[in-house]
């Protein structure tokens, strides 16, 4: 297994798993969309875990060198590859990429009810922030 930068050709598979993975379903019923994810692959931090030429998981994140802040948007390990340390390897590669970009603070969000995600982030040194209520406004149909 190795971690590589995501390519635009990975976008269909990434979109498929975003829509298929129950834990990623937005409470608003909307996801970020292919155009947004394409921009993240081009300009953000986008990684793929490859296992024998198959995608075993991916990570998409924004990172702003000017502010020094990064936000982890998606960290997905496909169900048949869970429990093998792939999520940790993706996260480690992400943290290294953030260090190279001189990022000072990383945000990651997980639903409180997703106990596995909460434990994963705590295990990897993330602190739990104050609870917040998300708001959104749809501007176009």
Walk me through the structure.
The protein has a single domain (about 1-125), classed as Gcn5-related N-acetyltransferase (GNAT) (Aminopeptidase), CATH 3.40.630. The protein starts with a strand and ends in an 18-residue tail after the last helix. The chain has about 140 residues and is an alpha+beta fold. Strands 1-2-3-4-5 form a five-stranded mixed β-sheet, with helices on both faces. It has helices at about 10-20, 35-45, 85-100, 115-125; strands spanning about 1-5, 45-50, 55-65, 70-75, 105-110. The mean pLDDT is about 90.
Summarize the structure.
The chain has helices at residues 11-20, 34-43, 86-100, 115-123, and strands at 2-5, 45-51, 54-64, 69-77, 105-108.
Structural class: alpha+beta
Terminal CA distance reads 41 Å
Count helical runs.
Answer: 4
CATH superfamily: Gcn5-related N-acetyltransferase (GNAT)
Q: How many domains, in number, for the residues? A: 1
Neighbour order of strands in the largest sheet: 1-2-3-4-5
How much strand? 15-25%
Task: Return the CATH architecture.
Answer: 3-Layer(aba) Sandwich
User: How many strand elements?
Assistant: 5
- What overall form do the CA principal axes indicate? globular
Helix content: 25-40%
Overall pLDDT level: 88
Encode the helix/strand succession as letters. Answer: EHHEEEHEH
CATH top level is Alpha Beta
Spans with pLDDT under 50 lasting ≥5 residues?
A: none
In the CATH hierarchy, the third-tier topology is known as Aminopeptidase
Write the layout of secondary structure elements.
Elements: E1 2-5, H1 11-20, H2 34-43, E2 45-51, E3 54-64, E4 69-77, H3 86-100, E5 105-108, H4 115-123
Parallel strand pairs: 4-5
Antiparallel strand pairs: 1-2, 2-3, 3-4
